[in-house]
Amino acid sequence: MSDPWQKAYDFAVEVARKAGAEIRKAGESEIRVMTKSSTVDLVTKTDERVEKIIIGALKAEFGEGTHDFIGEESVAKGEACILTDKPTWIIDPVDGTTNFVHGFPFVAVSIAFAVNKELEFGVIYSCLEDKMYKARKGKGAFCDDDPIQVSDVKDIHKSIIISEHGTDRSKEKVTKIFSTMQRILCIPVHGLRGSGTAATNMCLVASGAVEAFFEIGIHCWDIAAGAVIVKEAGGVLLDVDGGPFDLMSRRMVCANSDVIANRIIKEIEIFPSERDDIAIKKK
Ligand SMILES: O=P(O)(O)O[C@H]1[C@H](O)[C@@H](O)[C@H](O)[C@H](O)[C@@H]1O
Ligand SMILES: [Mg+2]
Fold first, then answer.
1. pLDDT tens digits, residue range 10-61?
2. Who contacts 176 (Cβ-Cβ below 8 Å, separation ≥6)?
3. Which atom of ligand 1 lies closest to the CA of 41?
4. Which numbered atom of ligand 1 lies nearest the CA of 222?
5. Residue 191 and residue 244 in one domain
6. How far is the centre of ligand 1, averaged over its atoms, from the C-alpha of 219 (Å)?
7. Where does Mg(2+) bind (predicted)?
8. Which of 147, 168, 191 finishes a domain?
9. Residue 246: inside a domain, yes or no?
10. Which domain holds residue 18?
């Protein structure tokens, strides 16, 4: 039987590369929206333009109506964020917008594709480093054309763990985030890191540079492509409470192994985050 999603996968890589070139040449980082006083969730004109370019190219190639699209900027404007059985593209045009605004050199384009609610492939283009990470279900993970694999470190004391502060600045959440970081740092581990983009963080787990990444407050478009890449590189994905990974739950641990993931989970102080799909249904 012919491979039904090969063409879509190849096209996604091409589109991610074009989008990355667009981000690199943008040079403009005008902040358009800064939501609420307790959050610092930046959006630039580049985010909006690049999402239009990506979705426009995908619609032109695959026909409007046959595929669904969940894009960070479209959802911000009120479009649905519900994963159905329909072939669905999940897109973050600029993951690491704060980095982009400040010239901090980690910015990624993240494109994932799901069918029957199952992720088929993920493509992450770390556009300032010019590294193309990609994976298809059951076919391994790659950086450019080289296969990548998670690290084999199983001793938490020899690990580097990534987390982020997210965008919420409410005292209660920030306290829990820092308390969790302190608990993990003092296990002790070799180090704590954060690139400022969930997509890039997941690629760092997939390529073995770090042992794990966790965050509460991320969105499905930040992690959908990375989920396929981590899994195909031999890693695991779990909920922060140790249950199964749920793409729409806005929380996740990904790691090189169950051992490392479960050790971190013991230290995570969970705080509430509204699901991506519920948040939209309310609109
Ligand atoms: O909004 P963008 O697309 O830049 O993505 C987010 C990052 O991916 C998070 O890890 C990170 O913690 C922030 O929440 C950041 O906003
Ligand atoms: Mg993002």
1. 999 999 999 999 999 886 555 666 666 688 888 888 999 999 999 999 999 9
2. 269, 270, 271
3. 16
4. 8
5. yes
6. 8
7. 72, 92, 95, 222
8. 147
9. yes
10. 6-147
